[in-house]
Write a structure and sequence with these properties.
The protein has helices at about 30-35, 65-70, 135-145, 175-190, 205-215, 235-245, 250-260, 265-270, 295-310, 330-345, and strands spanning about 75-85, 90-95, 100-110, 115-120, 150-155, 195-205, 225-230, 285-290, 315-320. It is of the alpha/beta class and about 350 residues long. Helix 4 packs across helix 5. One of its GO terms (molecular function) is hydrolase activity.
């Protein structure tokens, strides 16, 4: 196992707590379906392979609606160089996501490649203070130094991305589209230093929930996924923990648009990824600290139980005494993460 102990780790602070998600370690303040998906991997404009969608009518704001949608990610453009290191170059990037322009950063290792790629989904940071690439600087650096192209998406409504005014009241499902389309954009770019047959996802906190959604919406899209300190896989639990106690007015807007869990249980069932966990085809690894008082470990244990109950390839790693952002055991956790990705993407 490679070791990270000689690498400098950046200190990560908690970001602000928000709707449908909690703060991440943001450094500021994370078989049949596979066979069928092979054709989709040949181009970004083809929909990802999916299993059968729930026969009940899908609310337009729901995971089944995203399953039925043709996701279009394209036009990945590298612009200004932001950072040059001895191991990689970081570029500002944009790409298209179902008609929106999404900004982000991409770390490209030195050398000819082609390199496997990882799409990173960051935790919550208030969009009013968010800046391009902000979210997981430790992970961006270490993964690129170990031979992965890293595409960190800003999401819609962040930094230089286009606005989607309905995204918050619609439980931020647009972030799931942006992550799925980041993968398609990587493939459509046909860059010689990117191996578009080897792509994984990594999400932290709120981004962990985004990764859960992507796995159920687009099975076969990627080869493996890792999440850190994820939010609940039941959105209503996130709202009850992070928004309702703060008197967030967005709660009333969400419930006016979609009903409460008591009034409209079918809506809330259709926005929970565990409802559709039987669709998942990728191996998943989850890291969670036992002292996480932001996103409780019990949430992750419940999600893992749902994956295991469906016979899915899921692995939970817990870290005694680690909080939400990870500290002393972060390097150990990244060793485990890279070994996992090496097994599935190398």
């Amino acid at each position: 196992m490679r070791s990270l102990r000689g690498l400098a780790g950046l200190t990560a602070g908690l970001a602000l707590v928000v709707a449908v998600g909690c703060t991440g370690s943001d450094g500021e303040g994370a078989a049949a379906a596979r066979t069928a998906s092979a054709s989709a991997r040949g181009g970004s404009e083809a929909p990802a392979a999916t299993a059968s969608v729930s026969p009940s009518p899908a609310d337009p704001v729901s995971l089944p609606a995203l399953m039925q949608r043709e996701h279009r990610g394209s036009d990945l453009r590298l612009s200004a160089v932001r950072v040059r290191t001895d191991a990689y170059t970081q570029y500002a990037v944009t790409y298209r996501s179902n008609g929106l322009t999404i900004s982000g950063i991409m770390n490209v290792p030195r050398g000819e490649g082609p390199f496997p790629a990882l799409v990173l989904a960051h935790g919550y940071i208030d969009p009013d203070v968010y800046t391009t690439g902000r979210g997981m600087p430790r992970e961006q650096d270490v993964l690129a130094r170990n031979g992965y192209v890293v595409l960190h998406t800003d999401y819609r409504n962040h930094a230089g991305s286009d606005d989607d005014p309905d995204n918050d009241v619609n439980l931020r499902l647009g972030y799931t589209e942006d992550v799925i389309n980041a993968v398609h954009a990587l493939r459509s770019a046909s860059r010689p230093n990117v191996d578009d047959r080897r792509i994984g996802l990594l999400g932290r906190s709120m981004g962990g929930g985004v990764v859960y959604n992507a796995l159920v919406v687009a099975p076969g899209l990627v080869d493996a996924a890792v999440v850190y300190a994820p939010v609940s896989s039941h959105p209503e639990e996130n709202i009850d923990r992070f928004q309702r106690p703060e008197g967030d007015p967005l709660v009333a807007e969400i419930e006016a648009a979609h009903g409460t869990p008591e009034e409209n249980p079918e809506f809330w069932r259709q926005v929970s990824p565990v409802t559709y966990v039987d669709r998942v085809t990728e191996p998943l690894q989850i890291h969670h600290g036992t002292a996480d008082d932001t996103c409780p470990l019990a949430w992750t244990r419940a999600t893992v139980a749902a994956f295991e109950g469906a016979g899915k390839d899921v692995e939970l790693r817990t870290y005694r005494g680690e909080g939400h952002t990870f500290g002393p055991r972060w390097a150990d956790s990244m060793d485990v993460t890279m070994n996992f990705f090496d097994r599935h993407l190398r």
